[in-house]
User: What shape does this take?
Amino acid sequence: MITRLLLATLGAGLLAGLLLTPIQYAGIVPLIIQAESYEDGGAAHDHASARGFVGTAEAAAPDAALLFAHSAAGGEAHGHGEPGAGADGHHAPASVESRLFGTLLANLVTGTGFALILAAASLVAGRPITATNGLAWGALGFAVVSLAPALGLAPELPAMPAADLADRQIWWIATVALSALGTGLMILARWPAVKALGVLALVLPHLHGAPQPADLASPVPPTLAAEFAVASLATSAAFWLFLGLALGLAFDRLKRGTGPAAFA
Assistant: This one.
């Protein structure tokens, strides 16, 4: 049964990651490519691509693949003599196929990872994910991993200012952890005092405040930045809702013993 449960979880995560890719390419990747045109000859690369894990989280977690779309865009200064760089120290633009493959691969990894986390959370909470409550589980995942951090660190485009990477990573991890703890206490705790602690855990990182850059000046138009933030969060919400529903349907089929033969 454990093997079937694991395979069902991985299958739902892979499917969610697969379906996320065309959504990103339709609504988010064009905005990233447009923002790259505002980078000053690639000088903003260290700042933008160094977002790494935090930039992923700020763009609502499933947008991890979008980091590849930016870093593979070409025309970014990496320093002379780096493998793959031309004589002028710039990388050649990546092909559409390489961008698509990298984005798809990152989405598959992201989907399976979050599927495992969501399934583990349901086991710890003693609340199985089903087709009936799958959307609710997905909404909780979105709120904890995407929406809560975005309240302090909005999804950022290339060339936009950002605070120190380590500071943003620490704040993002703390925010997600406290949001997960607070949400669990508010839903599962029986005593009002414990529920109050859950509320405190939810608001604590925002009372502290997210790290912000000293200089907020940016060549990216505010309308483009706002459009990207909305598109990123909408894409993340779609990903999480589908993931929760897919997990619920997969687990229900396992209970009925009608799962695909691959889960046997």
